[in-house]
Amino acid sequence: MASTIFRSLHSHPFLFHPTALIRRKDVILYCTMRSAQTQMATQEKVKPQVKVSPHSTQSKALEKAAKDYEAVIGIETHVQLNTLTKAFCSCPYNYGSPPNTSVCPICMGLPGALPVLNLKVIESAVKVGLALNCKLSLNSKFDRKQYFYPDLPKGYQISQFDVPIATSGYIDLDLPLEFGGGHRKFGITRVHMEEDAGKLLHSEGGSYSQVDLNRAGVPLLEIVSEPDMRNGIEAAEYAAELQRLVRYLGVSNGNMQEGSLRCDVNISVRPIGQLQFGTKVEIKNLNSFSSVSRAIDYEISRQVLLHSQGQDKEIVQETRLWEEGAQKTVTMRKKEGLADYRYFPEPDLPGVFLTTDYVDGIRNSLPELPETKRRRYEKMGLSMQDVLFLANDMNVAEFFDTTITKGADVKLATNWIMGDIAAYMKNEKLTINEIKLTPQELAELIASIKDGTISGKIGKEILFELLAKGGTVKGLIEAKDLVQIVDPAEIEKWVEKVLSENPKQLEQYRGGKTKLQGYFAGQVMKLSKGKANPGLLNKILLEKLNAKS
User: Fold this and answer.
1) Mean of the per-residue pLDDT values for the chain?
2) What DSSP letter does each residue of 317-348 carry, written as one string?
3) Which residues does 313 contact at the CB level (< 8 Å), separation at least 6?
4) What's this model's pTM, rounded to 2 decimal places?
5) Average pLDDT for residues 174-189, to the nearest whole number?
6) DSSP string for 126-180
7) What is the predicted pLDDT for the residue at 546?
8) DSSP 8-state class, residue 353
9) Cα–Cα distance measured from residue 296 to residue 313, given in angstroms and rounded to the nearest whole number
């Protein structure tokens, strides 16, 4: 069989990074992603909507027609679970490992090999189902989904069909302010367990294909949304919230560049007021949240244009690909129906039976989830911009929470984390877990500035040393003699010295150029090596500047 598929089969290692190879049933997609060193950014900016036609007249007509139609959008998201071994065998899976080094008779689909379910897969599925407010099926089962593809060694996929492990849930999220803000609630149709297929890599000339079965049998959760989204921004934010959720739960790293989170988008367009859905089109090859948004906006425009021209029959149920370079969708294949998959119960696996005690134990172990955390931060008095930034990354949120428990002012801690600390991490390409600064020392730094021990300027100098080298605030203050000077007599001497050395500027100030106050303050700070108390300095300086000569 293999010889009829491939002219040549090569097993030598091949390089996947920085290009991830993602499989989509009947096509191979190359998805190139930027390296993600930190998860600080909440979302990527969405590019302007792509116009189907370059002609301005047609574009204007399309914009006018778009007001008469609404889009209906649903998303199927595949989440790769970070279990130590695969779904039905003891093979480990490590992204980027040499091809065909994590395989066995079971994941290779050899005759006589029988699957054994990894219980961690069930645990992860229950966690996600509970976090998505789903109704859990205490009795569920696995099914065989039949289809042929060269990197699917068994000729079928073990999945769940009519009795998924979780159904009828929802997810809450907040849109970023740059996208208009506001709260959204999207329904979840189902969550089910299944296994992944392998990978193919085609040669440049197309004369042969390489097969890597390392990923075959890796556990996946497929999360299917209700068709509740209406534009690209909502869909991209939904996908980003799912990524946050699985990272908070610890069930997946959610890295799109590794294929750990993959989105297939279903879109239809209908006249406003019509209850019946239009013809659904599926889009694949979406490797970032911004591409999700842009692909949807393009496809909406394409379908609206066809409707407005009376060519809605041209919209057929199909799978389309998003071409990043051309910024458009193109036909990939006609969509299969359920009958094509010939589902039937998996005979080699028993049913999955959950007890209420088991479910309650997992429910009680869940961490604080993104939505709950955002609402708690709101009650602290933080702005939505602050809330979204802090809650986006669970490690940043944990750093912030620990800093607060050490007694730091909430707003000041937020400002330091979102400002200088975030900038340092971005420049140095570090995560918050990789910096040397601890929450304890950030709280100590904030307290030292607040009580006047050091100035804000000196505080920044200490911060960057703590970020790069570690240490303690008290230790650095003592070692570098950075304690703020609050003795009025000493500050007054510095002020008088600066004024006596700058008679021309003093005369100009008293002549009406009051902006020179900043110049004098800077000179005093320079003379004091930054240690003069700013408030006391400005008070004494003003008195001297405004004194009658």
Assistant:
1) 86
2) SEEEEEETTTTEEEEEEEPPPHHHH--EE-TT
3) none
4) 0.80
5) 92
6) HHHHHHTTPEE-SEE--EEEE---TT-TTSEEEE--SS-SEEEEEEEEE--GGGT
7) 84
8) E
9) 20
